[in-house]
Amino acid sequence: MLNPEQARERAQDLVARARRAGADAADAVYGASSSEGIQIRLGKLEDVERSESEHISLRVFSGTRSASIGSSDLSDLALDELAARAIAMARAAPEDAYAGLAPEELLTHGPFPELDLIDPSEPSPQALRERAEEAEDAARAVQGVTNSDGASASAGFGIFALATSHGFAGAYGASSHSTSASVVAGEGAGKQRDSAWRQTHHVADLPGAREIGELAGTRAVARLEPGKVKSGPMPVLFDPRVSGTLVGHLIGAMSGSAIARRSSFLLDRLGEQIFAPGTVIAEDPHRPRGLRARPFDGEGLATRARNLVEDGKITGWLLDCAAARQLGLEPTGHASRGGGGAPGISVGNIHLEPGPLSPAELMADIADGIYVIELIGQGVNGVTGDYSRGASGFRIVNGELAGPVAEFTIAGNLLKMFAQMTPASDLEWYRAINVPTLRVDGMTIAGN
User: In sequence order, which residues have a C-beta less than 8 Å from that of residue 443 and are 6 or more positions away?
Assistant: First the structure.
């Protein structure tokens, strides 16, 4: 694998080859990753996995026509052929008035912020195995746990580089460490499964393997002997394990491409009161060690901290350059690049500002409600905001949790849900989207 400086130079070299071959403009993205993981099940080694990948993609422009192509062969001959093929494809492609590189005057040229994404330590396979064993042993030691789906520990490293023909070149690396455990509680038809998982850039930020294992076991046992739920409207609390998905739906609807296609439930709602007054959803792509930290976006624009929602109102759309041109707006530094093709949209580290009440205080006045810990299915309509998903969790009776429940559906409309949303005070900071427990009144429950 190349280091970040070598990766940047390799991307610049491919862009230069494309220009020499006749491209009017071009950009290149280099990505590489390596990882090693150990899987333990019932105390025995089940799997050892080592993977390495390296890929470079090229996007070229011939007037308003463009094409993208990629390769894992980085030899000189292969890169020359890649450039020639990309240009031939672009000349045969349809015209697109909105496609193109970012405006040159908007490019960032550093110095880039220091994000502390690289952990120089590299755990040995034996250290990974010991971590996985400790996590599974702790999970299986929880009374009521009867079987294991396994525990794993992994470590990895990745590189991203971007170069454009009009002057941008940048690269950064990030390490990754994770521990997980998944176990089964109970017997026969009454079995229940749950898990715990954490990922960080630095191994020192991982909770202890024993803590992760005990949490997985405790969660599985707590789900035993679930009851049924009656149908009807009632308040719902979303555990932090799932509350971030609601903000995820918001981010998808804020995408400039969705707005340009007029396929978002937020269309024409800029400036409206979407959430309760005082609600803030903030983005910080420069948060040190954040899982979505990045110094620049997929088109070479600077990333920056901003509030996506301020005082309950959306502050603007998430725009790459193509969507910005289509909407007549400025790009916002939210472009992302994968293995090839045109940019998509992604955000940095997100959090929803917490409220003043603890989860216990937030549910204290609920006579009959639901506390959701798991969501099932993808029943969300991004055009209308209609929301319907399978769920499991716990009943809330007279302000307290009152036993597990399963096999029910929660439904509503995201706009109405956002308006009725109340955050608790238990914000945690280890996810890519960090959201506290949320209360949403007036949801429709469909049980048995």
Answer: 233, 234, 235, 236, 410, 411, 412, 417
DSSP structure class, residue 97? T
| Higher-scoring residue by pLDDT: 339, 342 | 342
Q: How far apart are CA 414 and CA 238, in angstroms?
A: 14
Question: Angle of helix 4-20 relative to helix 76-92, nearest 10 degrees?
Answer: 50
**What digits encode the pLDDT tens for the residues 78-113?**
999 999 999 999 999 999 999 999 999 999 988 899
Find the radius of gyration of the CA atoms of the chain.
Answer: 24
Under 8 Å CB-to-CB from 405, ≥6 apart: which residues?
Answer: 226, 227, 228, 229, 370, 392, 393, 394, 395, 447
pTM over 0.85: yes
Q: 232 is written with which tokens?
A: 């009807």
Burial of residue 88 (CB within 10 Å: 0-12, 13-18, 19+) is middle
DSSP 8-state class, residue 339:
S
Distance between CA atoms of residues 185 and 84, nearest Å: 58
Q: For residue 339, is pLDDT > 80? A: no
- Average pLDDT for residues 420-428, to the nearest whole number? 97
Q: How far apart are CA 70 and CA 411, in angstroms?
A: 42
| Burial profile 47-85: b = 16 or more Cβ within 10 angstroms, e = fewer | eeeeeeebbbbbbbbbeebbbbbbbeebeeeebebbbbb
DSSP string, 182-236: EEEESSGGG-EEEEEEEEESSGGGSPPHHHHHHHHHHHHHHTSS-B----EEEEE
Q: Give which of 162, 26, 13, 32 is closest to 80, Cα–Cα.
A: 13
Report which DSSP code applies to 113.
P
